[in-house]
Amino acid sequence: YATFNWEDPLNANNLFTEEEQAIAETAERYCQERLQPRVLQAYRDEHYDPKILEEMGELGLLGSSIKGYGCAGVSSVAGGLITRAVERVDSGYRSGMSVQSSLVMGGIHEFGTEEQKERFLPEMARGKLIGAFGLTEPNHGSDPGSMESVAKPHPTKKGYFSLSGAKTWITNSPIADVLLVWAKLQETGKIRGFLIERKDCPPGTLETPAIKDKNGLRASITGMIQMDGVPVPEANMFPDVEGLKGPFSCLNSARYGISLGVMGALEDAIARARTYSLERKQFKGNPLARYQLIQKKLADAATDAAYGTLAAVQVGRLKDEGKMTPEMISMVKRQNCDSALRNVRVLQEIFGGNAVSDEYHIGRHVANLFVTQTYEGQSDIHSLILGRAITGIQAFV
Ligand code: TGC
Ligand code: FAD
Fold first, then answer.
1. Contacts of 254 (CB under 8 A, 6+ apart)
2. What's the pLDDT score for residue 288?
3. Which of 40, 146, 260, 363 has the greatest count of CB atoms below 10 A from its CB?
4. Residue-level pLDDT at 87
């Protein structure tokens, strides 16, 4: 027999190409050497350093599945291995990258004009331009189809729209140069995508205040987008896509990235809990790892991480072969976020009182994973998407 590897119990590595393994190694090395040493302080200070995106850009980690425009053009699985490496350190760092890569660059690549692609993608791939994705509004989260943000013809500037409305809980918004905002075109009532460039906004039309004092995802920056007659040139609207298909298509890639990303956070928690349980001694000098209840917690978590990884790899392969359905993405996003959160909450118990100290990193993963279960479609919303596909009956309304 081969030797059992607790870090990769079902040998998922065996499914990766040599190129994918090399990309994963590069990403893991960068994340462990450059991100891990700064995450604790960043989380304490609720600080996100935008230089991180430039560093990722230098390594070709941004917009990695896009072909051309300065992007690496790798497989969806390779992209997922990058998110896994980043989220092994912190979900917030993965969030900043997902928004840049999947939601904004992915959206421009899928729906933008050639001119928009050439104008934005190469600079975004280098992390020199930062993106934000504005879909959620204060009154409309799970139900973005009811959004109130509106685009009207600009009253004084010919060839421009005027955007008004508010978006909230928007990753990267306070530091973003390019904001992909979804709003209803007044003329048709249909949702369209608009690229707002901060540098071109007259004073008082665009505000992006940060949302402070979060109790999760503190190493990423989150804010609002407040628009009061923002002038946006017609050339900055996505030309053809209308309706929720636009934002949801971007979400397919980002949700996929999360499904492998959260496995990184879970694997980090397993490794930390295993080490702790081998070192900590209770009752007659026995390590905690000696006890059956502790071993079961580790066995459950390792099993769920291994199954979750294999499922996500399968969906990634189908995605690249053009055989993916959005429901598959709902399934792996929901399952992997739920199982990562559930297991990490249990693993946290192994640390006893020390779990309360941030230096053990476990509490940070728990707080972050609650957010991953909530954004990009809360898990119950994905249950309803799957339930609709199984029964043919929609139960949202
Ligand atoms: P529904 O009738 O289901 O669909 C409306 C139109 O959209 C199309 N569509 C999709 N297209 C591509 N991919 C998908 N996954 C799609 N899902 C739906 C659909 O075919 C239809 O097209 P058409 O041409 O017929 O108009 O719409 P609904 O209003 O009933 O939607 C219900 C529901 C619950 C499925 C949807 O609203 C939903 O998924 N809600 C969750 C909201 C959400 O995910 N928000 C994410 C905000 S962004 C974010 O959280 C980023 S966090 C980033 C980070 O920091 O990492
Ligand atoms: P609600 O929609 O109010 O839902 C509250 C609860 O009710 C949930 O449990 C939900 O499942 C449940 N619920 C709602 N409707 C139903 C129903 N019909 N049946 C059963 N249960 C239901 N959004 C962006 O656009 N861009 C971003 O970059 C972004 N980044 C984020 C970063 C962070 C840190 C956070 C916390 C959120 C971010 N979001 C972003 C917003 C996120 O997508 C929303 O929070 C999420 O979609 C849920 O919406 P909501 O918070 O309004 O909750």
1. 98, 99, 102, 103, 106, 376
2. 98
3. 260
4. 98
* Res 273: pLDDT: 98
Is the CB–ligand 2 distance for residue 374 below 6 Å?
Answer: yes
143 lines ligand 1 (CB under 6 A): yes
For the chain, which residues score pLDDT lower than 50? none
Cα separation, 301 vs 282, in Å, equals 22
Q: E strands along 242-297, which residues?
A: none
User: What ligand has the least distance to the C-alpha of 111?
Assistant: 1
274, amino acid identity: R
CB 308 within 8 A of CB 332: yes
**Any atom of ligand 1 within 6 Å of the Cβ of 111:** no
- Taking the CA of 173 as reference, the closest ligand is 2
* ipTM for the whole predicted complex goes beyond 0.90: yes
DSSP letter at 56 equals H
Compute how many other C-beta atoms are within 10 angstroms of the C-beta atom of residue 28: 18
Distance of CA 324 to the CA centre of its chain: 19
Count of residues in the chain: 397
What's the token pair of residue 353?
A: 């009182």
pLDDT for 266 = 98
Ligand 1 atom, smallest distance to 172 CA = 55
Q: What local confidence, expressed as pLDDT, does residue 281 receive?
A: 98
Residues in contact with 273: Cβ distance below 8 Å, sequence separation at least 6, in sequence order: 297, 298, 301, 347, 350, 351, 362
Q: How many helices (H) and strands (E) does the chain have?
A: 12, 9
What is the reported pLDDT for 188? 95
